[in-house]
Amino acid sequence: MVILVLPLFALEITGSYASASLAMAMFGPGTLLADIPAGMLISRLGVRPVMLLGILLMASAAFIAALAGPAYYLGIAVFVLGMGRGFVMLSRMAYITEIAQGKIGQAMSAVGGAMRVGVFLGPIVAGFIAKYFGFTPALMIAGLVIGSTILFIGFLSGVSRPTAAEHGNNPFKSVKSVLIKYKKVFLTAGTAVIGLTVIRSVRLIIIPLWGDSIGLDEAQIGLIAGVPMGLEMFMFYPVGLIMDRYGRKWVSVPCLGIFSFALALIPFCSSFTALMAVVLVMGFGNGLGSGIFLTLGADFSPSEGRGEFLGVWRLFGDTGSTTGPFLISVIMEALTLTFATLTAAAIGLAGALIMLFFVKESRAKQPFG
Fold first, then answer.
1. pTM of full prediction above 0.70
2. 3-class secondary structure for the chain?
3. Which one of 12, 156, 228, 367 is most buried, counting C-beta atoms within 10 A?
């Protein structure tokens, strides 16, 4: 719901595509800021407290956004939302990594599929609420939905305990040692992941703004944003099987390639039907990568210092999520939305080439030197 409403609400407040994109770009720095602290907290406190904190931050941010006045106020709300999401995503990633030994690909792709159920229903519901009742009610309802997920934390089985040997250890030393020991992982797979997260993040901005630019209303944009997720959410099971039986590159490379190709076609869309068709192709490409970021992180993460490793891993991914919207905002301001979209597509293609030629297959847990 928030994915659809916030860009359009920002556009209504600012009256500028570039300014709306800039406000939404605050999501990335919020998530980026949370990654390393979240990893440290998981090692010292366990999964439950970190997940609870993330949910509370996200719900609060939705209510703050609903009451936004000036654009900077909305930017603060988006920043807090990003922080909350960082805590939730990393704690969930650590939890699944521990309980899904031997079937990590299937487990992580199932998580990705579950996310897509929400991203399928959310924009459609939010689009109709925003059209007939306004953006504020849509955000209020989203905040209530986010907050209600606190009820499910108590049902987590086998929740990880703190893994830090001594709470008095210097957490920053642990992070530094992880960076040094696994630098090859971060420079290859981490760089490819940046390309993936760039195009995933800018898609959430480009699709609503392009839909508005060709005269579509909120309900139509909601359908375009949501319906492709219906395709994606049915792909997680076969994608998980492929990852576990044949390898991660069998899905990661086509994911980046098809996604980037479809993104490059958006500037050629001038109708609801054309944009829906292109976004469906994009959804197929993204569906091939269901859980791939989580799976690669789980593959490479060590048993000792897992929280710190996953924190750094998410830092790389969220670097793409952060820089993508800022880059798009700057290019839109200086040039056009079309040029910004094509630039994002080129970044995604570069990620596909890095994944194909420089990232080792991780299915068999092949160690990096």
1. no
2. CHHHHHHHHHHHHHCCHHHHHHHHCCHHHHHHHHHHHHHHHHHHHCHHHHHHHHHHHHHHHHHHHHCCCCHHHHHHHHHHHHHHHHHHHHHHHHHHHHHCCCCHHHHHHHHHHHHHHHHHHHHHHHHHHHHHCCHHHHHHHHHHHHHHCHHHHCCCCCCCCCCCCCCCCCHHHHHHHHHHHCHHHHHHHHHHHHHHHHHHHHHHHHHHHHHHHCCCCHHHHHHHHHHHHHHHCCCHHHHHHHHHHCCCHHHHHHHHHHHHHHHHHHHHCCCHHHHHHHHHHHHHHHHHCCCHHHHHHHHHCCCCCHHHHHHHHHHHHHHHHHHHHHHHHHHHHHCCHHHHHHHHHHHHHHHHHHHHHHCCCCCCCCCCC
3. 228
Chain-centre distance for alpha carbon 66: 22
Average pLDDT estimate for 42-54:
84
CA dihedral 253, 258, 264, 267 (to 10 degrees): -150
Instruction: State the chain's mean pLDDT as an integer.
Output: 80
Binning pLDDT at 50, 70 and 90, where does residue 71 land?
Answer: low
> What pLDDT is attached to residue 367?
42
Cα–Cα distance, 316 to 19 (Å, whole number): 25
Tokens of 324: 């993508």
Dist CA 226 CA 211 (whole Å):
13
**pLDDT tier, 369 (very low <50, low <70, confident <90, very high otherwise):** very low
